[in-house]
Amino acid sequence: MKNNELLEALNLLEAEKNISKEVLLEAIENSLLIACKNHFGKADNVTVQIDPETCEYHVLAAKTVVDLVEDPVVQISVEDAQAIDGSLQEGDVAQVEIQSKEFGRIATMSAKNTILQKIREEERKMIYDEYFALEKGVVTGIVQRYIGKNISVNLGKTDAFLSEKEQVRGEHFEPTDRIKVYILEVRSTPRGPKVLVSRTHPELVKRLFEEEVAEVRDGVVEIKAIAREAGSRTKIAVWSEDEDVDPVGACVGMNGSRVNAVVDELCGEKIDIIEWNENPAMLIEHALSPAKVISVIADADEKTAKVVVPDYQLSLAIGKEGQNARLAARLTGFKIDIKSETQAREAGDFLDYENDYEDEDEYYDDEYYDDDEYYEDDEYYEEDGYEEDGEAEVGADEEDGYDEDEYEEADEAGDEEDE
User: Fold this and answer.
1) CATH for 4-130?
2) At what angle do helices 105-132 and 4-17 cross, to 10 degrees?
3) Which CATH architecture has domain 277-400?
4) What is the 8-class DSSP label of residue 67?
5) Would you kindly state where each structural domain of the chain is located, as residue ranges?
6) What residue ranges in 67-212 does DSSP mark as E strands?
7) Which of 43, 58, 93, 350 meets the CB 3.0–4.6 Å disulfide criterion with 36?
């Protein structure tokens, strides 16, 4: 007999929760077995048969035919057995159907809870699998609320956790604000998946360029390296195998439309785009842009480089609080020692180079690096902070990342808040 009511309920659950009918039928089967165990005290001899097409089900207990019944749960008299099947004799096994409507209230509630628990587990598993597949990617979320200094961000099917450390200093969001976040990690917990996200990770910039720039998304232009100080400035090095493609121009876009879209998403964070070069000296020269460079002597084995810049460009090459040189070191992986032309001559590191650097504009184009928008001098240095005859040495061993212990503490704080 077709069980239309159960069939409709399963179809509805499958459509709404995206849980397969097979999983739901398995949950029903287990719930009936548990109900039998609660009602009869044991269910070792009970089997459940469900037709997946009609949802017609039968609960059968295998009972041994005996002359004198001592345990009615596993035994049946010859007379009762023959009433089911006239061919059964003593010693045979009879399949006796159990009517589920005979179950008591406790057994029924137990069966119901088993089904609901299975549905919840499947929902959590599906959400975990969905967001685990998005790990190391960018998603759009809606700010829900502040948990202390941490932020709960709704991603649609679950909430993500944006810790204080992974927030950009100076950024402030209000509930219902839409923001893009980078998924650091997805954890499976008894209370459901826990999604940890970031606004400071360098990969966030890369993913945003993949969304905005078709050439990057298709692999025609490759982002070879990223150095970021979240909320302030990012340098990225791009490269293309196709000689007909300008990788820097592709990322900048017409009138800066593409890079400006990323800048807007990062709340005004400056972005420098340079062309990658396999020659370390050329790469370092590009990385120190917009400062002009007279000479670069790079040691590929020691990962060190000596750079000479014009006297009037030293502060620009170093950058405000050393930021330009620091990001260049991270981007290239070299420890960079920057000296002015005068310092280099006094130290004997700089001999007879032509002073034609003022006309060397081949490595950056004013179209892409607008002084008013991207390279205002007061963004790079302050006269009180850097003397014109100073020098800087910046290492490349600063790493970006996140602290696992801090997430554990924040995770516990979030759970206590929820409770």
Assistant:
1) 3.30.1480.10
2) 30
3) 2-Layer Sandwich (3.30)
4) S
5) 4-130, 134-201+405-418, 277-400
6) 75-77, 93-98, 138-147, 150-154, 159-162, 178-189, 192-198
7) 43
Task: Yes or no: say if 29 and 18 are a contact pair by the CB < 8 Å rule.
Answer: no
The whole-angstrom separation of Cα 392 and Cα 235 is: 19
Domain 134-201+405-418's class? mainly beta
The pLDDT tens digits for 195-248 are 999 999 999 999 999 999 999 999 999 999 999 999 999 999 999 999 899 999
Average pLDDT over residues 20-39: 81
Specify the DSSP element, H or E, that contains 29. Answer: helix 21-40
**Dihedral sign, Cα of residue 135, residue 165, residue 271, residue 282:** negative
Within 13 Å of residue 197, how many CA atoms lie on the same side as its CB? 29
DSSP 51: -
- Token reading at 129: 């699998």
Angle formed at CA 373 by CA 222 and CA 230, multiple of 5 degrees: 55
CB 186 within 8 Å of CB 170: no
